[in-house]
Amino acid sequence: MSIPSGTPSGPVRRTPTPRTSHGFDGSPTASGAAVQKQRAILFVVALLAMAALVTVVTIVSAQADSAEAPVAEAEGPDAEGSAQPEIPEARVSFVAVGDNLPDDVIGRWADAQAGDVGDGTYDYHAIYEPVKPYVEAADLAYMKQETHVGGNDIGPAGWPSFNVTDEMADAVVDTGFDLVGSATNHSYDWGYFGANDHSRQVWNEKPVAFAGTASSEAEAAQIATVERGGITFALLDYTYGVNGYDRSELPEYAVSFIDDTRIAADVAAAKQAADVVLVAMHWGTENQTDPDDEQLRLAKLLADLEVDVVLGSHPHVIGPLEWVEGESGHKTLVAYSLGNFLSNHEIPLPENELEGMLSCDFVRDAGSSDVRIENVSWIPLVNHTVSAKDATEDAEAVAETHAVYALRDYTPELACAHDFLGELDDPIAWLAQKSAEVVHATGSDFPIDDGAEQR
Fold first, then answer.
1. CA nearest neighbour of 139 among 209, 12, 47, 227
2. Which residues partner with 103 through β-bridges?
3. Average pLDDT for the chain
4. Strand ranges (DSSP E) for 369-433?
């Protein structure tokens, strides 16, 4: 250790601390007073140290209590607003079409569109090109895939057991459809493989909400939903039956059948999962435009359940469009039949070539959870079919054509070339008049966008 200067080197004897002594009067002597003063100073320092320790312990304890205790909610309008942010305004445009029903004739045509005939590839895109702008313009679009996508091993097949190849799913998605229903009387035409196993595998890989058929109980229990603009939509899909089978012969989950109890349970679940509930119903009487008694009963049931929109299909002709009021006062928009979207009837009626597209907007005001329906209108569509014709001395060869047009885009030249509509005196006027007659049959007055103003 270092030694202070001025101190002798070598060992140093420590001087003992003097004892405190008192005089005879009890007062300390000079040396005793110094010791007592030191003790007083030490006592004060000890008191200060104890006070500091108590303060530290108190602070640490308070911090621990604060970390464990729940944070009290702030009071006042600002806190209330931050806890529940205001629901934003939203508007979603929607369109829906009917049965997509390609047969073997359309399948062979699609084979030729894809390249060499018989090479195992198909292309259906050209069918939907004329109507694609209407589908793409909507925020959300629905269609009913009546024939199952049973795979290319089965190949294109027509009545009575329909099948369409996998490429149809590509055309549907590329046209702009987001919602696809599959519960129809042709759902099980090729049994479990076509209806469930292969079909669901194909559709599950596509960016669509798919309903109506399932490959497992878990898949059947799922509610198909899609979100647009902050509004969530649920799609439920049912059919009256399937051709060639009793319901008991199918797995419970395979096809969604119309059943009052099941529909009520599904709608309740859909309401928990979505803001808007759409229900597709494969029902009605073929080639009859008026709704039958069972359609009317089910429409009332769905209105009582407060479904938002009913999308009807199966009759192969269009049906009326109307509001149906439920027991609570809720109004459900019911399209009894949207008709075919694509078809190739061997001997069709003119009515089979007339189709429909439902159009509307779903609107939610800022701060409200309620969604209402606005701007409801009907867009007539035409299933355009032209058979191939060889060239003659008087006419050039005619190429086979399959396409879907909006009536407003359908020209007299196209109508005259149509295999069956060309036989009418004025096909376009007939299509427009028939649309209005059927759509308004129950007393509604929804606008019909048939292009009359431009003709």
1. 227
2. none
3. 86
4. 372-386, 401-406
CB 200 within 8 A of CB 155: no
User: Distance between CA 395 and CA 375 in Å, rounded?
Assistant: 46
Taking the C-alpha atoms of residue 455 and residue 450, their distance in angstroms, rounded to an integer, is 10
Distance of CA 325 to the CA centre of its chain: 25
CA dist 185 and 187 (Å) reads 6
Q: How far apart are CA 135 and CA 302, in angstroms?
A: 26
For 240-302, what is the HEC assignment? CCCCCCCHHHCCCCCECECCHHHHHHHHHHHHHHCCEEEEEEECCCCCCCCCCHHHHHHHHHH
421 contacts 427 by C-beta, under 8 angstroms:
yes
Amino acid at position 74, single letter: A
Average pLDDT over residues 49-58: 50
Q: Residue 132 above 50 pLDDT? A: yes
Q: Is residue 383 a contact partner of residue 342, using CB atoms and an 8 Å limit?
A: yes
Report whether 178 contacts 139 (CB < 8 A). no
Assess whether pLDDT exceeds 50 at residue 106.
yes
Q: What is the pLDDT of residues 7-30, one digit of tens each?
A: 333 333 333 333 333 333 434 444
Tell me which amino acid residue 442 is: T
Q: Please tell me the pTM assigned to this model.
A: 0.81
